[in-house]
Every structure is written in C-alpha cells, then in structure tokens.
Specification:
Shape: globular
CATH topology: TIM Barrel
Radius of gyration: 16 Å
Helix content: 25-40%
CATH architecture: Alpha-Beta Barrel
Strand order of the largest sheet: 1-2-3-4-5-6-7-8
Largest sheet: 8 strands, parallel, barrel
Distance between the termini: 8 Å
Structural class: alpha/beta
Number of helices: 7
Order of helices and strands: EHEHEHEHEHEEHEEEH
Number of domains: 1
Length: 209
C-alpha cells in the first residue's frame, strides 16, 4: 500500500514553493485558516498571497475549527480541494460540504476508544477520517493502536506528534495518509532540511513495494 503524506501548518512562501516544486511532493498541504491560537495560523490576506502559488501535484487543505459563515465566505473562491474540519457536528459539516462543494476531512481528536468510535457519526459527510491528538496546535501524541483493528470505509489520515525519525512502516499498517507539522520544524518554523528528509523517506518507503 502506498503511504500518502500531508504537510500541515504551512505559512511561509519560501517553504510552500519548496514543497510544491519538490520531486516527491506530499499529496496534501494544509493551512491553518481560522485558529489564531496556533503559531501556524495564516490570516486571510496572507493566505490569498500564499495560494497564488500553483499547487502542482499536491492538494490544498483548509484547516478549520468550527468555522463560522464569515470565514467560509472569505475563502470560498480560494483553490482549496479539501476542508479539514475540527469540532463540528455532522449536520453543520453536511451543510458546509453542500454549500461550498468541497471534499471533507473530518478531524477527530482522540484520547480514548470512544473518541475513535465517533467517526461513525460522520460516515455520510466525510471523504477522509483524520485521527489527531487532543492537542490541536500543541503536537501531542495519542495511542495509535486505538485505530489499528478497525475496518474503516474511507481513507484514514493519522496525525499526532509524528516525527521524521519515526518508523513510517508502522504508520502505513494503520493509515493511508500521515499528517506531519511540528515534526518538520526547528525553533517553531518549518525547516527545509527536515522537509527534504521526510519527503525522501516517504518516497523510499513506497519504492520498497
């Protein structure tokens, strides 16, 4: 199975250009759109400048926490392929999906097995299930084994303090996509050298098949 990847929390033009022009770019690139508590947050004005960069082989993802109509209207014409939504009920997500015609990554913050089971509430609205830690912007971990024996009906994305020196094969056994952010940073900023290591590591893993 091919392990896909997402680099999240991109907020810098130079970094974005490096990622989209890489020989082995990630399938997904995420931008923190409406969560100012995150150091990776990008305001709408800067976001519009960033997204002028041609995504090429990657897909652009808007990361949204219980988004209000105002922000949804502000970004509706931007070239996002997916909305990654935290902290929303299924009815609201269904409305967003129908209104804005976007594919949906439902993000589920996990602390225990009951949190994992909540994915069943989103079967009708989700295109991808993302299992993340409770930390949001803090790059915390959760027990990934909580999802390993479940037969999901959609692709599974895995986040939660993933690091570039982790054994990626163990993630490939339980997920279709890995989502990395803080693991690619040095002193709070995306680090091109770490991005290079990560993208080549994913490429090498997939070439082993």
């Amino acid at each position: 199975m091919i392990l896909k990847s997402k680099i999240c929390g991109v907020s810098d033009l130079k970094i974005l250009k490096f990622i989209v022009n890489h020989n082995h770019p990630p399938q997904f690139i995420g931008f923190i759109v409406n969560y100012p508590k995150s150091k990776r947050y990008v305001n709408t004005k800067k976001l519009k400048e960033l997204l002028k960069i041609d995504k090429k082989k990657s897909l652009y993802v808007a990361v949204l926490v219980d988004p209000e109509k105002e922000i949804l209207e502000d970004i509706k014409n931007l070239p996002f392929d997916y909305y990654q939504i935290y902290n929303c009920n299924a009815d609201k997500i269904k409305f967003i999906k129908k209104t804005y015609k976007k594919k949906i990554i439902v993000a589920l913050a996990v602390e225990n097995s009951q949190d994992v089971k909540s994915y069943e509430l989103y079967k009708d609205v989700s295109d991808i299930y993302l299992f993340d830690s409770k930390g949001y912007e803090k790059s915390l971990s959760f027990d990934h084994s909580l999802i390993k024996d479940i037969q999901f009906d959609k692709d599974v994305m895995l986040a939660g303090n993933i690091q570039i020196n982790d054994d990626l094969e163990k993630y490939r056994k339980i997920a279709d996509i890995i989502d990395i952010s803080g693991g690619l940073e040095t002193s709070g900023f995306k680090d091109i050298s770490k991005i290079e290591i990560f993208l080549n590591k994913v490429k090498d893993l997939n070439n082993e098949d």
